[in-house]
Design goal:
mainly beta, Tachylectin-2, Chain A, globular, 5% helix
Length: 355
């Protein structure tokens, strides 16, 4: 398997997690990560990656699929023998440097080899709480042992009683945290008054009908008195669809007015804003020679330019400030073939909002 193929496989876990629907079932696919299997070591194609039968359950895999055509090592949909397109060379940003894994199946005492979709908030004592999807139990939290945010211990209580995907936590005030997540074709919100340990559901905030496509979860920034959110169409296993990102605005985080689709393609965006209103948008994308996390910037919130490559093979970025021009990026990727997929952290080398 080529290096690029392995990097593309590293994002397959978030694609599978994003396909969760109401009732905890996987949509529109026969075999998905977490489903039971009977042939240990069997590998099958899934989207642009593959799944492997491990310990009686399907799990994301970086192994090649037997019988896949040359030039298509994962056996993903394609036309055998079609010459590859010329790679698009992306400029590397040099904003973050990887540190290593922070959440794995061992963090939560599991064996599912799937921990994905991190979202971070800062606690009053400086520690960081991470929300993530953990196979097969659902949303879980873990809190860092100190303010450096590189070592975490799992919380014993699940933040939500319902099955949900793609969490995104936003601090409302000193005590309250709002959690956005995907459920039954909508972006839904829940509110916490105990600093993000447990949440009460508030209901849908952006539906498929409003978005014009089935949405993944949102990321938001506040510019003046208005919140601006970014979200993409929901990734689904086995579906090779165009990755679309869109923006929306709100004054209360709950009622949203749809804005335009963005010109560039990408998925699972995360937004940052500086004091002058400049927005940096991080997202996962495939640009031929480069596959992973990219960043673009905007001064009006809708037109983004200056795309740069940030992290190879990563996805689902979530970034938190640790001081003036200092940042931590949490993101999903493969930890190792034995540990499967987890959450990694990268430390900033410069300001996360590029000039």
């Amino acid at each position: 398997m080529t290096k690029q193929a392995k990097l593309r496989t590293a994002l397959s876990v978030s694609v599978a997690v994003a396909a969760l629907m109401a009732g905890g079932t996987w949509a529109n696919a026969a075999e998905q990560p977490g489903d039971p299997c009977s042939q240990p070591g069997e590998v099958k194609p899934l989207g642009s990656g593959a799944i492997e039968c491990i310990n009686g359950r399907w799990a994301p895999s970086s192994k090649p699929v037997a019988g896949a055509p040359v030039g298509n090592p994962t056996g993903a949909p394609g036309v055998p023998g079609t010459p590859p397109k010329a790679p698009v060379m992306a400029k590397t940003a040099g904003i973050f440097t990887p540190v290593g894994p922070v959440l794995t199946q061992d963090t939560f005492g599991g064996t599912g080899k799937q921990v994905a979709d991190p979202s971070a908030i800062r606690l009053a004592d400086g520690r960081i709480r991470l929300y993530s999807w953990v196979n097969p139990t659902g949303l879980r939290t873990a809190t860092s042992t100190d303010a450096t945010g590189t070592k975490f211990v799992a919380e014993s209580v699940a933040p939500l009683k319902t099955m949900a995907g793609q969490p995104r936590a936003v601090r409302v005030d000193a005590d309250r945290i709002r959690l956005f997540y995907t459920s039954a074709g909508t972006i839904t919100s829940a509110i916490s008054s105990d600093n993000g340990l447990t949440f009460t559901e508030e209901g849908p905030v952006i539906t498929t009908a409003q978005a014009g496509f089935e949405p993944g979860t949102l990321s938001l920034v506040k510019v003046g008195g208005t919140y601006r959110a970014y979200f993409s169409n929901l990734e689904k296993p086995g579906e090779r669809a165009e990755r679309i990102m869109r923006t929306a605005t709100s004054t209360d985080m709950l009622t949203w007015t749809m804005g335009p689709q963005l010109a560039m393609s990408g998925s699972h965006p995360f937004a940052l804003v500086d004091a002058k209103g400049k927005i940096a948008l991080y997202y996962a994308a495939d640009r031929g020679s480069s596959y992973g996390i990219f960043v673009s910037t905007s001064t009006n919130g809708t037109t983004f330019t200056g795309e740069k490559f940030v992290i190879a093979g990563g996805g689902d970025a979530d970034i938190i400030s640790t001081g003036k021009n200092k940042w931590l990026m949490y993101y999903g990727s493969e930890v190792s073939p034995t540990m499967g997929f987890g959450v990694l952290v990268a430390r900033s080398l410069t300001n996360a909002i590029p000039k």
